[in-house]
Amino acid sequence: MSGSVALVYDDSFLAYRHADWHPLQPRRVKLAVEEMGRSGLLDQAELVTPRLATDAELALVHDLDYVELVRKLGHGADLGFAHPDNPVFENMHEASALIAGGSLQAAELVHSGRARHAFNPAGGLHHAMRHQSSGFCVYNDVAVAAAWLREQGHRVAVVDVDVHHGDGTQAAFEEQPDVLTLSLHGKYFMPEVGHDFFPGSGGSEEAGSALVNVPFPRYTWDEPWLKAFDAVVPERVRRFHPTVLLTQDGCDTHLLDPLADLRCSTRIWPPVGRRFHDLGRALRRPLGGARRRRLCRGRGSAEGLDAALRRDDRPAATGPAPARPRELPAAGRAPGAHLARRGPRDRGGYRAARLIRGSRTWSGRPEPASKPTGGATQA
User: Fold this and answer.
1) pLDDT, average across residues 47-73
2) What is the count of structural domains for the chain?
3) Which one, of 107, 106, 245, 275, lies nearest residue 179 by Cα?
4) How far apart, in Å, are the Cα atoms of 37 and each of 22, 48, 128, 217?
5) Which residue among 89, 205, 258, 363 has its CA within the 20 to 30 Å range from the CA of 307?
6) Could you say which DSSP state residue 84 is in?
7) Which pLDDT does position 349 carry in this prediction?
8) Enclosing H/E stretch for 101
9) What φ, ψ does residue 6 adopt, rounded to 5°?
10) Which residues are known catalytic residues?
11) Is residue 134 assigned to a domain?
12) What is the pTM for the complete model shown?
C-alpha cells in the first residue's frame, strides 16, 4: 500500500456491546487488530486514538432529539424502549459517539493530508437512520463522515460491500448529488420466514445519478459477485469524479456468516482491495488541496485484513452451498425472532440468535404505547 496509513483504534471501542447474547460482538474488532499486529501491518500504520463525536457532528446526520434519547437511555432512563436487535446498554451514547468520532478522525486525517489511507475497524454502522436505530447500528458513522467531508467541499464516493443494503447511508444522501452511494448486497425473499432479507431495500430500481444498488440473489458465490463488482463499481466511481473514496467493508458475504445467505469466500477481498486502491490513486484533486485517498471502515478491511485473507486456504465457493441449517422456533422471544445454528465452523461454540426483520426499532420519535416498538432486524 503506497502512501501514509492511519489506523484509528483503541480498546475503548469494545464498549459498543449490546448484550452478551447479541450477534454483534466487539471482540471481532480486537481480533482484526491483533491479526494486523501478527502480520506486521501495524508497523506500517500510524495508530490514532479515537475521540467522541460531538452532538453538532452527529447532527450532520441525526436529529438532536434522537441523540438526546440515546444519551438518556444509556444512562438508565426507563422510557419503555426494548428491542432484541438494538437493546439498550450502559453508556450507549458514549460508545456509539466514539465509533462515529473514530470515522470522523479518519476523514480529518485524509482531508488534511496527514494520511492517504485511514481505517476505523469498529465503523460501518450503516443502518442507523436520522431518527432511529436499526440493524445493530445506533449512530451511522459512515454517513457522519461522508457528511463532514461534503461540508469540506469534497465529492464523496461511498462504496458499501456489506451483505446488507446500506439503507441508512442511502437515506442520508438521496437528495445530495455530490455524495455517491453505491451498495452491493443480498436481496432475496426468504420463504421460510415469509419476507425479504433485511433490510428489504436496495433494489436495482432504486437508482439515480448519485445512487447505485447492486442486489444479489440468494447463494451468490465468488465469481458472479466479483463479476458484478468489476462491471459496476470502477466505472460508476470514475464517472462520478470523487475527491475521496469512503468504503464500508463488511465481510458478512462469507458463506459461514450465520445471518446471511451469500456464499462468498475470503478470496474476493484481495481483488476488491486492489480495485479500491486503484480507484484511490485516480481520485480528482480538490481545489486547493493535495490528492486525496481512501477511508475504510467496518467489520474487517479489504486491505487491513490482507494477511488474514492470505491465510485462508479453503477452496473458493463455486456454486450453491449446502442448505441453511433448519430454523428452530424461538419460544419466549419477541415476535419475529428466530434461532438458527451458526454452523459447524463456529469457533466460539455458541448458538447465534438469528434476528429476523420486523418493523421499526426504538427511535427519537417513540410509537404510541398501544403499538409495539418494533420487531427484530439484522445488521
Assistant:
1) 97
2) 1
3) 245
4) 27, 15, 31, 36
5) 258
6) S
7) 25
8) helix 92-112
9) -120, 135
10) 127
11) yes
12) 0.79
